[in-house]
Design brief:
The chain is α+β, with helices and mostly antiparallel strands and 295 residues long. 17% of the residues lie in helices and 47% in strands. The strands form 2 sheets. It has a 6-stranded antiparallel beta barrel with strand order 1-8-11-10-9-12. Strands 5-4-2-7 form a 4-stranded antiparallel β-sheet.
């Protein structure tokens, strides 16, 4: 028969949120409070944890400096409107004001660990009263209304993959369709496999970050392809063949085959549509043997 075939590569991988990161401290000190625990929703720039710094508060000092420079900046702006201040002075004061504002933001982040984007806290690594240093991981935040799965493909198969290919996951009896987002140009030095990333929608947040899923990637399709059940084709080193029946006699037909698809094999040469192919007992036949068709 003829029909549409698709070659599917099946490979597993671990789920992560489409946006996912670990937030860390900006300065050393003691964790004073975990504001957002596991499962908590946080807004962009929302506070995840509060850290009490060792020694004087960088935020308090930065705030005092910012307030002082801000007042100077506002005075210079007022004078500038009257034309009483040269442009060079205006530029210098404005640069100092911008620098102080950025220092204040950095100091605020050092003591109030912020979320870089809106999401959900999925892991917390520290507890109140823990001593931490600069860069200590505090929590992991993810957004997983859409998910990304990293899979690894060996060198023999990587040429079958390209961005934009359709892929699907079967979850709780439902099929989630997505696509290949990116294919690495180089292999992992440890595994010698090539990382490939697939993305999928995740309605209802059913698939959680960290879960292992099986990804089905459609690497090739054939439209209206002539095909037969895979087990009726005998494949040897010297070629492949099937047995057809003409006038009650078995004839061995040399064939060329294409893609494999869900138990079927595409036949690209050697058969024509409508020929009767032996589907049972082919291993007992030889070319020219008499056969009896059993329905």
């Amino acid at each position: 028969p003829r029909g549409n075939l698709r070659a599917v590569e099946i490979v597993g991988g671990t789920v992560e949120g489409i946006s996912q990161t670990v937030v860390s401290t900006g300065a050393g000190g003691t964790v004073k409070r975990i504001v957002a625990g596991v499962g908590s929703r946080v807004a962009e720039n929302g506070v995840v944890a509060v850290v009490e710094p060792d020694g004087a508060s960088p935020y308090t000092m930065a705030k005092a400096q910012y307030d002082q420079i801000k007042k100077s900046y506002e005075r210079v702006k007022a004078l500038a409107d009257e034309g009483a201040v040269p442009q060079e002075t205006i530029d210098q004061v404005e640069a100092a004001y911008i620098a102080a504002r950025e220092q204040l933001r950095a100091a605020r982040k050092a003591e109030n660990v912020p979320a870089p984007f809106g999401g959900t806290v999925i892991e917390v690594y520290e507890q109140p009263k823990s001593k931490v240093g600069p860069g200590t991981p505090i929590a992991k935040i993810a957004r997983w209304d859409k998910i990304r799965v990293e899979i690894e493909v060996n060198e023999r198969l990587i040429s079958n993959y390209s961005p934009g290919q359709r892929a699907y996951i079967v979850a709780e009896g439902d099929t989630l369709w997505g696509e290949i987002e990116k294919v690495a140009l180089g292999a992992n030095a440890m595994t010698h496999a090539f990382p490939v990333w697939a993305v999928f929608p995740n309605p209802g947040l059913r698939i959680k970050p960290g879960a292992y899923v099986v990804v089905n990637v459609i690497t090739r399709t054939a439209q209206s392809a002539l095909h037969v059940p895979m087990d009726v084709v005998t494949v040897k080193e010297d070629g492949a063949w099937v047995y057809t029946v003409t006038g009650g006699v078995a004839r061995r037909k040399i064939v060329k085959h294409g893609l494999r698809s869900e138990g079927f094999l595409e036949i690209t040469e050697g058969l024509t549509e409508g020929e009767k192919v032996v589907v049972r007992g082919a291993s007992l036949l030889s070319d020219g043997a008499k056969v009896r068709i059993v329905n």
